[in-house]
Amino acid sequence: MTVLTSLPQFPWLSLLIVLPLVGALLCLMHSKRPADCRALSLATSLAVFGVALYLFICHGQGEGRWLLYEDVSWIERFGARYVLAMDGIALLMVLLTSFMQVSAVLLAWRVERHVSSFFALLLLLEAGLMGIFLAYDLVLFYLFWEVALIPMFFLISVWGGANRRQAALKFFLYTLVGSFFMLIAIIALYQIHGAQSGVYSFVIGDLLQTQLTAAQEGWLFAGFMAAFIVKSPLVPFHTWLTDALTESPAAGSLDLTGLLLKTGIYGLIRVAFPLFPNATENFLPILAILALIGLFHAAWSAYHQDDIKRLLAYSSISHLGLVVLGLAAWQFTAWEGSILLMVSHGITTGGLFVLVALIQERTGTRSMKELGGLWGQAPCLGFLFLLFSLASLGLPGLANFSGEILVLLGTFQQHPLWAVIALLGVVFAAAYILRLVQGVLWGPAYKERSVPDLTLREWIILLPMAILVVWMGVYPEPFLAPMHGAVETLLAGGLP
Amino acid sequence: MNESLLFLIPLLPLCCAVIIMVFGMRLPRLFAEVLAVTGVAGAFVLTVLFWGYSEGEGTRAVLFTWLNSGSVDISFALHFDRLAAPMTLMVTGVATLIHLYAVGYMHEEKDYARFFSLMNLFVFAMLAIVLADNLLVLFLGWEGVGLCSYGLIGFWYQKLENAKAGTKAFLVTRVGDVFLAIALLWLFAITGTLSISEINAQATSLSPGVVTVVSLLLLLGACGKSAQLPLMTWLADAMAGPTPVSALIHAATMVTAGVYLLCRLFPLVSLSVVAMTAITAIGALTAIYAATCALAQREIKRVLAYSTMSQVGYMFMAVGAGSVAGAMFHLLTHAFFKALLFMAAGCVIHLAGEENDIFKMGGLTRRGPVELFWVFLAGAVCLAGLPLTGGFFSKDGILLALFTHPDPVYRVFWLVGVVTALLTAFYTFRLVYLVFAGEYRGVGHPHVLPLLMRWPLWPLAFLGLLGGLLNLPAFVGGSETLHNWYDNLAGRTVTASHEVEWMLIVLAVAITAIGWFAAHWRYRIYRAPQENAISRFLLNGWYADALVDRLFVRPFAAMGRFCSSGCDRTLFDGTLNGLAKMATGWSALIAQMTTGRLTTYLSAFAWGFLILLGWFLLKLVSGGGH
Amino acid sequence: MSALLFYILGFIMLAATLLCITRRNPVHAVIYLVASFFALAIMFYLLGAPLVAAFEVIVYAGAIMVLFLFIIMMLGLAPQETPEGPGWKRWGPLVLLSSSLMICTLMLIFQDPAASKEIGAFYLAPQAVGEALFGRYALAVEVISFQLLFATIGAYMLGKPLSKGDQ
Amino acid sequence: MMIPFGHALAFAAALFVLGLTCVLLRRQVIMILVGVEIMLNAASLVFVASSAYWQQVDGQIFAIMLMAITAAEVAVALAMVVYLWRRKRTLVADVFNGMRG
């Protein structure tokens, strides 16, 4: 292990996790005063965002493997340590999480039932996500993995739509089964490593040195992949997502699509690939095929949907297919593109989900048959909807394109055929997105209902997202720069 | 002056677009209009001012890094050279006139902010294509053009058909974009750069097979934007947009982008004989296809749309025959007279009381200002290729290039070009006769033509008629200005004996005359059209839409249904529900054993105890005691 | 002599127990059981455990079984459990189970060489037991005393009159 | 005393099996408890016999503790019997099947 552990510094990373937890607790303690809860959770999420922003600006360009590292002994008996580590990729994910969380809190402003619990769960979810992105010890990682799961389950099952129970249960079972395999693999790896070296440890950095036979590596890798593939989600393990996204409350779907889905891919990058390089190498083509199937399957399915939320859920699956494809290409540019796309997809699809929630609030429907002509009634809303849709469609100059083109440029250098097939998927993306835009914005307006335009609060949610979408499309350099070093080390496999 | 000021040329329309988009509805209408026109006119003036930069190898300017990751290092960079300069001038110039016209045309439209901001954005995107230094910036403009056409064709979105036409334009061109993107990725993979000039420089060192494939991909990409076979179906429907938009799409922006792309990458494309032949073949096929379709159209703008397709086919043929100068020459003259024709058609439609059908027009010389007839005629004779007009010289140059090409197969293309010219002359004059000759057959009341819709036509008529001077052939005493200006970028120098040239000219004149006379004979006096299978076939564009629908759209929708209902609902969810049912069944079975009765549990415990004991015993017996 | 006595007592104990478990009247059953415990107490004495024997009589036969009797009488339990009595179907398998258990256990016991060794003469004075109990096993005694306390509290809680909801 | 250790154990086993039979055979809760007592006594017998066999005090100690624990158990169990009787006016064990799956 590195000697970074001894550096005395302020525990910024712990702060990122502790702050939302404290916020959640305070929310629960003020359950009688909903207004306070709102203000409190907004303040908390803003504070977390502030910390993340500070880290991005002041620690974004560090030397060495890690930008920040914290290591405290935790459960000594088992060799589980409280290790948090942040590299460029984690930094981006942390930034995205804290940013989306502010939006989610603002979006949930009008929740009426069990306000304090809602915000507490939202903040707990943020803590879990932060933990996933920062943990560098497998027990800790698994712990946060489950911590992030539970609030989401309640968010869906209590505040969700008509079919919420079933959707929540489906979500819970899928992810739980996946993570169960991961748990087994974690323990097995721990045992193997301990028996080999005599040092029983869960820290990823220690486990990297484990010598595994091909069969062992394959099985352990499969265990981890079960969790990550379900979470990513790749076809055919994706049906939980469409239901969960469709049924969950607005803030929940924002977090689900923007952040929770990324944990699966992040797990691939941070845990599965480095720990099992040989198995990874063998598995990459399969991963690519799964990704491509997912990309096309979801694009086709999206075209058939009438419920706009469900359509967006499929579009998420399709985009994440491209992200996974970039990872499977195992190429520097493609990886950077994938990570960038992950971030930008979080923002664009997040924005779309916000807008869908607003549209549903105003019109009471999500069916394209009953929508249309919104542009004339609420031009600002329509404009932003168009903007995010176009970004999602991969228009150059908007956020998703930067990631997509990097993925494709990188992938083509390794596997031209994959890139070409993926490009065909781009047309399909255009097909369903344009169908969405046409169904929502164009056509005759429904005269019997009036659709008010965006309010100030909604502007505050959407405007930063819109600005980011353009910024990331035109000048993604600030987001690309921090990850260069991290991607390089991860690809080389030469981790400390 | 600093060369990065060159960025003002595309950024001026962009900034105006953004300002209008954000503040348009809050500011007075006049402000938005002035801003829109100023943006484009400013770009025109700047182009003139910066003309000097284009000489020699041209000037490169880098704004800032766009994407930087690993070996990818792409900047927002532009390259103002001899190929880009005239194109920029044309785009901004024609677009300025169109914008002026649009101010008049849209004076009753309430949603003007969206319109003008999209128009300015459109010009920006086209300038990005023209000025791009690397293929990614070009791709930015390329997609941007698609987006703007989407927004503008579907501008009157309340009618769902308009929105659908816009969507169609975006989607069909996007299919072409995919091929362009593949070419882009491929070029990057083999050359390690996306800079156009570097790719052109490295072209000779690439393997011929790769060059051929990449060129064909580029061709398909160009086909999408330039509405060539097989990706041409969107253009006719694009008439759903306001007339200034049609003018912009057909004359200054969008459809010419494909031709420009091929000219830009000509050093690469020209290396492949197969690709060059394919380009010519596609151009020729489209030219004759569109010309036949134009014969039977009833809507004035559709006739013009098909004529555009046909004329762009000529430009493709020119590129295929190796004459970049010829292609660009035709592109420029075509831009002038087609913008003119569209804008005049807009006036005509206004006069006919928003009537599109040419069979319900007629006698419009007497209903509106007579000058309209003259400017429309000026455009028409250019299109028909009447001698001494701009269109005549540019088209003749292309036919000459085809005729003199060493490969004998080009004679076939040349013949197609000649036949197309005949058809062009025929349908052009058919249009003129149906619209202007005879008595008025419609019922609509004429609208008043605002001044702004009238005077922008004059400069265009002037340019169209005298456009030939741009590149007057040597044998009629010209100096081939454009060809010399392009210098080493001009492609193959067409050399032919004077006899051949004169023969071709005489032939062209004869053909135009025949077309005119045929139209004169058939349409001078109005006769009601007869419906028959052939006319329906041509009217529907050879049923290409239906074919596309059958071949692609329906299978796609079916696939969507299959994936969503078939796979997800039935297969995946069904399997899981089955598993869940099975688990529930098992659990019910096990739950039955949980009777809740103490006695059951106790006896189960006792039996278990017995088994345990028995096992011990067995172990002892098999172990032979201790 | 004492060996013979041991066997006689053993058979008395088994017979009393058998009668106990087959009586339909619970009062009779408990009385037979008391008899069985007396026999057992004397067996304890023969095995050199006078203190345990005394406790067996005082605590088991004297206190616990009397408690049983109290409860049975207090609740006025009917002698008959079920009108038709246990049928073959019910106790046939039980006899099979019990006998096979018995056989298995006996086989297990007697295959061990230690089973045939004789128990030597042994006598443990109550004082020695007391010293061990409050010396080495003091902590265990404390724990058990706690348990008795809790049991008392538990019995008290259970014995409270039912609240209305439970009825 | 000249009896083999095995015989003492055999008596204990027989007592135990009788107790178990009682537990399984009888339906009344109180008789089930009686069966439990019988089995506990069988255990006591083993403890005491072992104590004599190994000449050690511990077996007897455990027998005494067993009695103490049994006393506690019986106290609670009989209290429950009373409780159950109050609720359902019967002590037939099969009636109490509230834990049914």
In terms of topology, how is this protein built?
The complex is a heterotetramer of chains A (496), B (626), C (167) and D (101).
Chain A: H1 12-29, H2 34-58, E1 68-75, E2 80-86, H3 88-107, H4 115-134, H5 138-159, H6 164-197, H7 204-207, H8 214-231, H9 239-247, H10 250-275, H11 277-304, H12 308-329, H13 332-363, H14 374-377, H15 379-393, H16 399-414, H17 416-440, H18 456-474, H19 477-480, H20 483-492
Antiparallel strand pairs in A: 1-2
Helix pairs in contact in A: 1-2, 1-4, 2-3, 2-4, 3-4, 3-10, 3-13, 3-18, 4-5, 4-10, 5-6, 5-10, 6-8, 6-9, 8-10, 9-10, 9-12, 10-13, 11-12, 11-17, 12-13, 12-16, 12-17, 13-15, 13-16, 13-18, 15-17, 16-17, 16-18
Chain B: H1 8-23, H2 29-49, E1 59-69, E2 72-80, H3 84-105, H4 112-131, H5 135-153, H6 160-191, H7 196-202, H8 208-226, H9 233-237, H10 243-252, H11 255-264, H12 266-269, H13 273-296, H14 300-320, H15 324-351, H16 364-367, H17 370-384, H18 390-403, H19 409-436, H20 457-466, H21 481-486, H22 498-523, H23 533-539, H24 544-593, H25 598-623
Antiparallel strand pairs in B: 1-2
Helix pairs in contact in B: 1-2, 1-4, 2-3, 2-4, 3-4, 3-10, 3-15, 4-5, 5-6, 6-8, 8-11, 8-13, 10-15, 11-14, 11-15, 13-14, 13-19, 13-23, 14-15, 14-18, 14-19, 15-17, 15-18, 15-20, 17-19, 17-20, 18-19, 18-22, 19-22
Chain C: H1 2-22, H2 26-46, H3 50-75, H4 88-111, H5 126-134, H6 138-159
Helix pairs in contact in C: 1-2, 2-3
